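debug: dumping io for the single-chain case to check the tokenizer round-trip. Nothing else runs in this session.
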Amino acid sequence: MNASAPRWSAILFEPTRTYSAQPVGLKTGDRVYQALPTDSYKPAKPAAAAADASAPVMATEIRQVTVKRGDVLALKAQQGDYYWKIARHFAKDEAVGTYAKELMARNGGSSVVKAGQLLNLPVTASSDYELELAIAVQKVVQLRSLFGERTPELDWGSAEVSAGPVDSFWVSFKEAGSEKRQRFMVSDDLSGLFPGRYTVLSEKEARVYFPN
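debug: decoded output
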């Protein structure tokens, strides 16, 4: 992945007058975002809103992202990782071997995975829905960080998915160097009008709507 980070701009969505962010020059009105490696871009300050904005940018307003074919989950390889092991976690059961080969090709072609190596896990026909859920969370966490929200560094390869309330999923990740987990509630667009669109809430936010 290109080590240079893209420039981001704050986008005002009418008529709700809520803010989000997307790479400068992106030619779409949809909320399509690029996932960034967790350690490649650390903005010096939160992204600025448009000059004519009448309300501050709130990180908690960034909840919806679109995940599409070719999007990637960026993660650091852990000691003992290898492509088959990673593929077994994020690929469809019948396509683990195929996805392992896709991962190797996408990440330089070498069969050796080194601890600390930055890996890109792409959404393909071989990957499972758990990868899309993890990417949705990563996009929201990274975008919120642009607006000043602090989140512990997460081990993105440690994703665990379980059933959540009302057709949603709980997606959890270990904090880096710890067994403690951060949980997020993720739901897709049930209307079918926006394929690949996900809404992501932190556990604290989700408990406001679903206290039990």
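debug: round-trip ok. The chain is about 20% helix and 25% strand.
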